[in-house]
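Internal tracking record. Fields below are filled automatically when a chain is submitted to the structure queue. Please do not edit lines marked as system-generated. If the sequence contains nonstandard residues, flag them in the REMARKS field before resubmitting.
Queue: standard
Priority: normal
Entity type: single polypeptide chain
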Amino acid sequence: MKKNGVAIIGGGNLGLAIINGLLKSNSSLPYSLHVSKRNSQSINYLKDFGVQVYNQNTTMISETNLIIIAVKPFDVASVLKEIAPLLDPEKHILISVATGVSVSEIKSHLSIQIPVFRAMPNTATDIAESMTCISIENNTETQQQAVKELFSFLGEVIFIKEELMEAATVLGACGIAYVLRFMRSMVQGGIQIGFDSKTASAIVNQVVKGAAELLIERKAHPEQEIDKVTTPKGCTIIGLNEMEHNGFSSSLIKGISASYKQIEKTN
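SYSTEM-GENERATED OUTPUT FOLLOWS
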């Protein structure tokens, strides 16, 4: 028996990534899933997996408890205006994954008091390996637990202050692109020293996965693990120092800072 319904308003890249991640839980998922998109024909295939598909937003509101707003930031106001008359403060929780739209802005479009959360997952939701940051101001522990339980099916969850949501977007969501660009560079380096592209990719993918798991499992600082493979006069320290001389760490930090300044400027 499904205890709750989840409505995802917006069947774009992030909305579909959330659906895909939730579907990976298969029969253990305690929710019925509902998704809307103006052109619903492009997502009708989800019906084969038990997802209810709609071409408008209002029908599914009565069928659900947790409502995820997964539309472009400039569409949030019109969506809220459309669904506001159907919201029940005793039943519904709103969760926005729209970048840069504050809780106070969301509430300004509603005529009733209703629990509102902001969440920032990343595209790894698609494989249920996201890091999702959720702001929790002025919400009860019961409401927080309901939202945490939902996003825990998509990976790891941490609660943060709303003032850090833009920073979470840069480090947690944009961060996927930073890591992938680093990995691409490693693959290119691997090709230069003799590997074909497929073999270099296989090595790099597992190396990055293993490095992350080392830090997660051991709760270690990166430098602790770096020290284990940097022997005196060895090839590792020579390579690391050459990267640092060319601005490796500083360029990453500057890139993160530049992204944050851009997201602040557009809010």
